[in-house]
């Protein structure tokens, strides 16, 4: 029996094709933009300069200062720069850090965003933004930060190293997994979530084995797009709260923190909705809800992802502190927050041991 539900569609103009990024000038011109500021991280500044050439007279230059977790001071400088240069669109070229900075600018100025994601982060399909101040990451939702245009070009991910591709793909999978037990879950998003998980589960091992496999890259980007829709359409739960704490408080790398933690947050919730968690296990190659944590852990092993939070920068006292902060200001979760249990699971994650 189908229960009553509410479904919110996302008003984004999406282009998905190999080579789609080569059409960026005509796409943005058709949208009416005439002075486009290209945002990148420092590492992707060269890619930004190439985009300047593509945009020609539409370009207002490159702003290569995006960093992880969008510190408030970085966001404020970017807002001031955008206002001083009288731009009419921010083009975010990169992953979650760059798109996050574009969202910070949009939040303060209302400037529209176009996004060309080069990872599998998924932020481009959401109204979710995040800002970090005094080691605390705060998230919110606002329609102003939803990109107007998203251009998916799998060819742009061919240079993404296999190990980063794997972590980024598992970050996307986390969005889909949480959508299955979100407070406002619905049949449409659950269907998309399972399809996203299936696509990523199939594509990521192939990318690790053959990083230049364009078909696998396209399948992973398809999964990430679906996962982003899931994140943008329903709420977040315990997994995202844990990862926002790991990132905001301890500045852990975003994708790797999501990838490692997912096995433990899924384990924590494995008994909350048994039919749905059974479906999750089956999508991951298992049978029962009781396997979801170990299945994700095994997938991380197969992908060569760092398995221990200590290996990506969490200090020894981190598990208890993350559990404390998480429980002090929790997001919704179908299972009540248990600080002692979370400390135990995070200690296993810190050590890289399987969830149990």
TrEMBL record:
Record-given protein name: Maleylacetate reductase
ATP-binding among keywords: no
Residue stretches making up the Fe-containing alcohol dehydrogenase-like C-terminal domain: 166-349
Family membership: Belongs to the iron-containing alcohol dehydrogenase family.
Keyword NAD found: yes
Domain Alcohol dehydrogenase iron-type/glycerol dehydrogenase GldA stretches: 11-154
Listed Pfam families: ADH_Fe_C, Fe-ADH
InterPro entries named in the record: ADH_Fe/GldA, ADH_Fe_C, Alcohol_dehydrogenase_Fe, MAR
Keywords tagged on the record: NAD, Oxidoreductase
Domain of life from the UniProt record: Bacteria
PANTHER family: ALCOHOL DEHYDROGENASE, ALCOHOL DEHYDROGENASE 4
Species, as recorded: Vitreoscilla massiliensis
Signal peptide, first to last residue: none
